Amino acid sequence: MKLLILTQKIDINDDVLGFFHGWVAEFAKHCEQVTVIxxxxxxxxxxxxxxVLSLGKESSKCKLKYLFxxxxxxxxxxxxxxxxxxxxxxxxxxxxxxFWKAWHKKISLWYTHKQVSLNLRIAEKFVDNIFTASKESxxxxxxxxxVMGHGINIDIFRPLENKSENSVFKILTVGRxxxxxxxxxxxxxxxELQITNYELQIVGAAGTPEQEKYFQEVKELVRDLxxxxxxxxxxxxxxxxVMRYYQNADLFVNMAPTGGLDxxxxxxxxxxxxxxxCNETMKEDLRSAGYELIFKHGDFKQLSQKIxxxxxxxxxxxxxxxxxxxxxxxxxxxxxxxxLNIISF
Length: 345
Known about the structure:
Elements: E1 2-10, H1 19-30, E2 33-41, E3 50-54, H2 63-76, E4 83-87, H3 91-102, E5 106-110, H4 118-126, E6 129-132, E7 145-147, E8 169-174, H5 183-192, E9 198-203, H6 209-224, E10 231-235, H7 243-248, E11 251-254, H8 263-270, E12 275-277, H9 283-286, H10 300-312, H11 315-332, H12 335-344
Parallel strand pairs: 1-2, 1-4, 2-3, 4-5, 5-6, 6-7, 8-9, 8-11, 9-10, 11-12
Helix pairs in contact: 1-12, 3-4, 5-6, 5-10, 8-11
């Protein structure tokens, strides 16, 4: 297969989209040639059969230039691909769909978001397949939808060997600091804890003015609850380095509501870390754990109780719980299996 991939960013150092670098590398193992068109190009280290073409956002903010380069690239490379894989940005399908259909290219879209926009509806008409992580992460009815699970690199995201017990109980959350991530609920939950030897690590940063405003509100809440000594704002961490925070933590918490399947939860599970979430999408994946690991969205008192429950089990039992959760990712959300399944369609 010769594959064209369209994505927002190729940058191994990006905290949010850095994971896709690994997806491209995995595609390259199973394709004769991979051509990537990205909006923004940063640092990358990819196999020789991968060509990266940037629309130029790293050096210019001219959307007309992006559009010109998009059409230039899909035309000049048209003999170098027989299939198209668009990651999240369905607008590329809207822009290129007619041409790809005329050139007899198979078109696939990866989309994991609850929003159903007009351009998504249009894109659905052009594509042959729509891949998504869970049935809740694609809300437009279509017989083209294929529920695939996520793609986690289990060789990178793995438990720390010979992990020693922490002197303090480390609670971790990872992701953009934004209203949808509901960091305030976690802050209120840890403030309710009766235990004192804990530390909350928040990995992530604000990416927009709205998120920055929310971040300031979060920091103000920490001050109001007088837990500044318990909460550590780590900031953004490249995806390829974030696993060390998972590996050294005792518990991962995710407060995002039911909707798309948050990749950070699965990365934590792959690292053998117990998790507490409020996303009902995770019910089936967490069923084998033997613990009730889902709390009601926004219920900080219930979340606090569940954190306390995990704190009170011994390290061996926590390790056993983590092993069960890792097995879920290995079986259902393994990057290698995901890419092979996508290619098979």
